[in-house]
Known about the structure:
CATH topology: Maltoporin, Chain A
Radius of gyration: 26 Å
Strand content: over 45%
Order of helices and strands: EEEEEEEEEEEEEEHEEEEEEEEEEEEEEE
Helix content: under 10%
Shape: globular
Number of strands: 29
CATH architecture: Beta Barrel
Number of helices: 1
Main location: membrane
InterPro entries: Beta-barrel_TonB_sf, OMP_b-brl_3
Keywords: Cell outer membrane, Membrane, Receptor
Protein name: TonB-dependent receptor
CATH class: Mainly Beta
Subcellular location: Cell outer membrane
Distance between the termini: 24 Å
Structural class: mainly beta
Amino acid sequence: xxxxxxxxxxxxxxxxxxxxxxxxxxxxxxxxxxxxxxxxxxxxxxxxxxxxxxxxxxxxxxxxxxxxxxxxxxxxxxxxxxxxxxxxxxxxxxxxxxxxxxxxxxxxxxxxxxxxxxxxxxxxxxxxxxxxxxxxxxxxxxxxxxxxxxxxxxxxxxxxxxxxxxxxxxxxxxxxxxxxxxxxxxxxxxxxxxxxxxxxxxxxxxxxxxxxxxxxxxxxxxxxxxxxxxxxxxxxxxxxxxxxxxxxxxxxxxxxxxxxxxxxxxxxxxxxxxxxxxxxxxxxxxxxxxxxxxxxxxxxxxxxxxxxxxxxxxxxxxxxxxxxxxxxxxxxxxxxxxxxxxxxxxxxxxxxxxxxxxxxxxxxxxxxxxxxxxxxxxxxxxxxxxxxxxxxxxxxxxxxxxxxxxxxxxxxxxxxxxxxxxxxxxxxxxxxxxxxxxxxxxxxxxxxxxxxxxxxxxxxxxxxxxxxxxxxxxxxxxxxxxxxxxxxxxxxxxxxxxxxxxxxxxxxxxxxxxxxxxxxxxxx
Length: 524
């Protein structure tokens, strides 16, 4: 059983400028604060020497709050027209439940394996936004926007591994059900009473069902050559219904997703690999839900219930030397890629998600891992990519450009038994491009100590992140109608202290079964 607790208080800022016939200079001065509690319990029981069952449950509860002062100055053809000053208080409470159960069985002379897993996830955040907007002429608007969002995800899958002599065969089926129901209200203070504005309120129901089946074959032909090929089929049924506006969306699609790789190992020092995969990238619920996050009375962020998943085709050629140095060259073709776009019309700014571009990317990546002097563990990686973006159906601009990022990780043992270790990590990105976005330099330097006491039963970690305050988000977003610029910082500099104490006999093997439930990340 594991217990966790957190509490945070940080100061952030956001700056956003829009240049064009309709202009905007927006500044957010923001305070984020909140807390959280959680518990995780795992139980694994061996029914026999070839079968076991298990259960994992996780509960989380917390508050996520913000106080934001926004100043928005508006322009027409570079001529100042108006200022809106808004003070907003965001108060959110969230409860999350995650439960997984599994059954594993080995059978047959070759230890065939059957795994059956069921998952459940529930997230029910309740949020109230109170904000007051004042115009430069003195007009004042007081608004309350309470909302409740109910995410529920169910999944079940069965996987079968058959280690035949002609090829190792894996096959399985999976079903996932997503429910996303939300009730968002926009209420104006009129004569001392809050009156709901039906045009800005929305009750929305979303359901998505995914059915999948796969099969793969893996074969080692000799000591040098091996290969694997697989095929996955997914079918999805999506329904969205706005109970407020009566707008309904229905969509269904089925697609095949092949994967294949070939590995050649010339000797113990040199390994080559060539692979291809086709993947689907589904949007998170925040990008789909038409929930509105208001900046002021005229500006808001919202999701798009018509958003579609994107498809990636990936090709990669890689080389590994002595298990320490790896290099790869890759090409990726992305179709119907989605992202967030902002549109300003007079003083009405709307930011939402769209499928708006196809992109070709090619690049190279390097990684080197080694241990020096028995006390210095190092891992270094670098990645370069060139991208060509073709925009459709929006006023975003097509772009070409390069991207560069690096990651340096060092762990130094300061004592003979490595009971005290020094951490020195630095991630940084040089000025880069992605989609229709140019990103300026950013970096995060993290350092700290890992301490082990009481025969390693007690572990204490003390870490400081973003020491040089380089974790800023600065760049430009290009449109055919003008250029948008941003300069944001979310107070990434922080001190983290954690302690873990292990009870009981270490020789007793605990539950270590990994349960893959990535779908719940879409609800965050």
